[in-house]
Design goal:
- The chain is of the alpha+beta class and 130 residues long.
- It is built from four helices and six strands; from the N terminus they run αβααββββαβ.
């Protein structure tokens, strides 16, 4: 945030720390709930603004899994992974498959594209729900 000349407030730091420490895809409401459980009172608008800033500066990514809200995850750590999403219970499984990564590169090369990012989401039923 400093690199982009954005002030680092205590509330922004708490929101970012909650997201980064989770290792999960979290919605803004889940972050607010975790903050309240820890005794921190950060307003909903502040959480949304902070998440937007983290996405804007490349520290987090935003995902829409057709749940009616967005989920956020840190972009620190393994750079590329994809998601399996259960359409019944909402469970999300992150995975990395080298064959998919290689195929994407091959397709991009065939069509003379330079890949910058990708979104790969597979929807279905998890073991518990089918």
């Amino acid at each position: 945030l400093q690199k982009h000349q954005l002030p680092i407030t205590n509330q922004r730091e708490i929101v970012a720390r909650t997201l980064f420490a989770s290792g999960q895809l979290l919605s803004a409401d889940e972050i607010i709930e975790r903050l309240r459980d820890e005794g921190s009172h950060v307003g909903k608008a502040t959480v949304y603004r902070t998440l937007g800033l983290l996405v804007q500066v490349g520290l987090a990514s935003e995902h829409d899994f057709d749940e009616g809200f967005k989920r956020y995850e840190t972009r620190i750590g393994p750079a590329r992974h994809d998601h399996l999403i259960c359409t019944s219970c909402g469970k999300i499984v992150e995975f990395l498959d080298q064959d998919i990564e290689d195929l994407q590169k091959k397709i991009a090369k065939r069509y003379h594209f330079i890949l910058q990012r990708h979104v790969h989401q597979l929807f279905g039923l998890c073991k518990k729900c089918h």
